[in-house]
Design a protein that fits this description.
heterodimer, A: mainly beta, OB fold (Dihydrolipoamide Acetyltransferase, E2P), 2 domains, 5-stranded mixed beta barrel, 3-stranded antiparallel beta sheet, 2 helices, 8 strands, 34% strand, B: mainly alpha, 3 domains, elongated, Small ribosomal subunit protein uS15m (chain B), Ribosomal_uS15 (chain B), RNA binding (chain B), uS15_NS1_RNA-bd_sf (chain B)
Amino acid sequence: MAAKAVVSRGASLLLGTCVPCVKTNASKFKVRRLVLDTYLHMYFPEYEYIYAHDPQKICKTGDSVLLKKLPEKLTTLITHEVDRVVYPLGDVTDPVTGKKVTFNHYRESQDAETELYGPLPTRFQYDKAPPRGWQEDKKDLTHRETYIKYNDDGKDQKYAI
Amino acid sequence: MSMSLRRVQSLNILQNFQLSSRDVSRNLKRDFSLLSVSGTELGQSGLLSVTGHRSPFRTYYKHEVEVSKRIQWKRPERVPCILPEKSGDLSGLPEVDLNEPPPLFKDSTEFQTASETVKRIFGLKFQTSAERRQAKIDAMTKQVKRHKLDNKSVEVKIAKWTAIIRNLQEHTTKFPQDRNAKADLKEIIEFRKKRMKLLRTLDYRRFEWILETLDLLFKPAPSSHERVERKKSMRWLTAEYIEKVKEQKLNEYKEALNSQKIGFLKSKLSTMEAIVEEEKAFGVIPSFTEEDLNQVKETLRLKIEEEEKMHPSHQVEKEVY
């Protein structure tokens, strides 16, 4: 896989998508690169997985993150570090107006619409809601890779399907 | 029983061995007999005891016996996808009072002024099952509504599907032969899961709030589908077991080294002091300064404190009168 080594060896800055990872001080990222097929004269995507140093675990599965190459490898696996989270998943900001967006409309306009009908206390409120990730490892198990249950050992296997 | 030529040859070699030397034969008998594998020895230490010379073709059987004792594989029972364990519904439907009238009659003056018997007949208990189901759906959507007329927001839709799913799950337990219901149920569960996945990418905080209010568990699909097979599972379990043994051995070794630290530091300190004294007596500049000695003393003190914290057996017992 000569083409695959190009990504980690070459560019000092990379944009990757976070994927589930068990490591405590690092996150795993999927980096896409388009490779030209000279026979078909078409570009096809190739993927490489990179581990980046992330001691606070700020990256969630699905975040688009800017990665910086480390001057020296931390371990045999960890070659990069997390520079910043560019697009946090499910927390979109409109780059033109700087307003928060849900689906295809602003959160403000959504709240204004609710105000017109007369809001109920049962509704979801962004100001009162806790920050993203409060259900992690409780009811939202997207931070870990799941597997198909292959052994019945009598214990509760949380991440088995 | 057919035997390969190679195995026959190897057995002959063994017999020759036994004839040639009595000690060797005794060793071989001890090592290769299956009875020598004692359960207590294996269970406590969890390590293979390697003694004497071993031949690969005979140790194979012993190895197999030991593996079956430590690593056991049991095929998991198939859980149907329509059950709450798989669909992620941690609780049932909200309770609905069956003596209440359907929502359509609730505000009508005629119903309120009617006699008790009329009210009883018009209660949910004597209505159609569709009415009762609608009452359950209403109770579910009430938990997440934005405003009174809200019936199209994402959270209301998910609540509605959740109510339908839970109602059908109850139905399928009562009537397991209803295949149409099962097929519908599977379809709705998958539909809801897809929508939840989409909601997570678009509005993560609302997604988490829905999980909490509707009591749902969200498990993402595995990245690759692995068939459940005995051989593959045994390989994975063996890898797991090896990791465990490695960790255990490493921890034991670390403890053994740590226990030697205090003694080593004491002897180091005494030798350093002796060297310094001797050098002073001969009028040579000492090779260790006061700082070096103090550093060793400090580390020794810290080590002893740590040891006392870990094993507080050195504490003086108070006499009770």
